[in-house]
Automatic annotation (TrEMBL):
The chain crosses the membrane at residues 12-31, 43-61, 99-117, 149-167, 200-219. GO terms for cellular component: plasma membrane. It is a multi-pass membrane protein. GO terms for molecular function: electron transfer activity; heme binding. Coiled coil: none annotated. It comes from Marinomonas gallaica. Residues 8-183 form the Cytochrome b561 bacterial/Ni-hydrogenase domain. It is found in: Cell membrane. This is Cytochrome b561 bacterial/Ni-hydrogenase domain-containing protein. The keyword Protein biosynthesis does not apply. Its main location: membrane. The lineage of its organism: Bacteria, Pseudomonadati, Pseudomonadota, Gammaproteobacteria, Oceanospirillales.
Amino acid sequence: MQAQKVLVWDWPVRLMHWSLVILFTGLIITGKSDGDFMELHFYFGYGLSAVIIARVIYGFIGSDFARFKQFIYHPVDVFKYSKTLLIGKGEEYLGHNPVGGVMVILLLLALTAQWGSGLFTSDEIFWFGPFYGSISDEMTAQLGSVHHFLPNILLALVALHILAVLYHEVRFKERLVAAMLHGKKLKRGESNETIQTPRVGAVLSLGLGLAWLVWLWNIPV
């Protein structure tokens, strides 16, 4: 059956995906630098929060395959698809498959908990989150513990995500990395499926993310 390339990931999805990759990498590097790059660490965190806010908004008003309703599946469907990954290729999905959808949600939640807790913590020397001191010392300590522990979970999730992508690349010949660069995936058979980037959705999501970033940047610390 002849296959053809169809656009799945539009430019806002690709832009936000690779922005998250860069910002998360920067956060890990600066966070483990023993305070030498802590200022950059805060700025990377601000940027990460803005991108995630934009992505969540785009998950409701964005292009078809970017929307949460397209890749949030019933737990039974997730379990069944998980088995097909081990015993053979199951149903093909142009967008996120059920397991990939779970990974997206887990990463967004964990990253949000990470940057959210960072807004209330400090390095206890020079740099303080914009909301540091706005809550009790006990709550600040608890959020600080979360902020220092979560990177281990995040690194494990990212490693699992990369392994899953490589598994699909090798076993199923799905060029997922390339698809996230040019936005197109192969679909067998004739297809009239096309997606369009909703201008209002793109402007609103990216605009609100940028507005959040500017607001954070200008909070007096």
